[in-house]
May contain an N-terminal HTH domain (NagC) (PDB:1WOQ)
Amino acid sequence: MNDLNLYSNIHKQVRQSNGQIALQVLYQFGALSRADIARQMGLNRSSSGHIIVNLVNSGFVREIRKSDDQIAENSNRGRPGILLELVPEAVYFLGIEIGVTYITTILIDLTASIVDMRHQAFTCSEMGVENAIDESIKLAYSMCNEDIMNKLEGIGFSIPAQMNDKGYIFDAALLKWSNVDFLEIAKSKLLSSLPIAIENDANAFAIGAIYQSNISEGVTLFLVLESGVGGGIVIDGKLFRGGNGLAGEIGHLTIQDHHKEHKTLEAVISLEQLLSRYHDLSGKDNITIDMFIQYVNDREPMAVSLADEWAKYLGFALVQACRMIDPNKVILGGSMAKLYDLISTRVNTYIELYRDTPFPVPEIILNQNPELGSAYGAACILHQKFMSIT
C-alpha cells in the first residue's frame, strides 16, 4: 500500500469514528445546534460541519426548527438557528428473550425507543433449541415490514444460560440445553448475514436497565426474578462479567430451605417453586404470579406466609451479595419483582436480621419497566455496537 492510499484509509477511519461520536452526542443530549455538537465533540465548526453533512445525507440525522421555548431561551444569543437530531427510523434493532415458557421480542430504533413488542407463550424447555430459535425469529420478524427489514442492523438473543463470548452455551439448566453452539444455529436460521449477539439474560437485563436509567457511576447489582434467579453487575456504567462471564450469578448461592436441606437460592425463590408450593398447600390450580400477588395483597394467610418465606430467602441472599460486591443499588426485574414491592418491609427486616456486622445497605428498587425483561437489553447490545467507534 502506497503512502497516499494509507493516508486515505486512515482519513476515512477518522471520519467514520467522528461520525459515530456525533451520533453518540445526539443520542446522549438530544437535539443540538451545530455549535453545540462541535463543542461536545471537541472539534471546530468546520471539521464537525463535514461530519454532520455526511450524516444528514446518509439519513441518520435531520434538521429541525427550534421550538418557541428554545427560541425564547436563546433570544439573547443571536438569531434562532436550526437544531439537529437523530432520525429514529434510520435503523432498527431486534431483541429476543428466550424464556422457559415464553418468548418476548422487541424492536427498537436509532434512539433506542421501543417501536413494537410482542410476547408469546412457548415452552422452550420442551421444544428444543432449533424450534425455539425458529419460533423466536418468526415472532421477531412479524414486527418488521419491508422497510424495517431493509434497515435492520442486528438481532440480539437473551437466554438464561451459562455461555462464553462466542455464543456457545455450556449449560442452560432451566431450558434443558447443554453444549449448544447457539450462535452457529442462529446464523443458519436467519435469512441474511445480520450481526448477532448472544447474552445471558441477567446481563442483557442489566444492559437494558443501563439504557433506561443512564447509570454511569457506582456499583449496581441487577437481579432477574423469573423461572430462575439471574444477576448482573455494573460498575461505573459498564457490565462486569468476571473472569469467565459468570459474575453476579446470585441464583447459585447455597441456602438452607424450610426442610433444613441445602439448596440453591434459585431452587427456593423461583417463580415455579413459589407457585408450586402455593398449589400444594392450597390445592388451587393455574395460579399466576399476578394472582398470587393479589392474594398477598388481600392478606390471605397461606399466601402471606409463603411471601414472608420468599422475603427471608431474598434478604439472606442480598446480605451475602452485599458482603461480596458492596453495591450502591440493587435493581430488581422480572415478573416476580412486583412481589418485592408488596413485601419490601419484610425483606428489609430479614436483611437487618442477617446483617451480623455493620455495612451499608444498598437502595433496592424496581426496574422502571420490569415487563420489558431482557429482550430490550438484547436489542440494546446491537444498538451499542452500532454506535460504538470500534
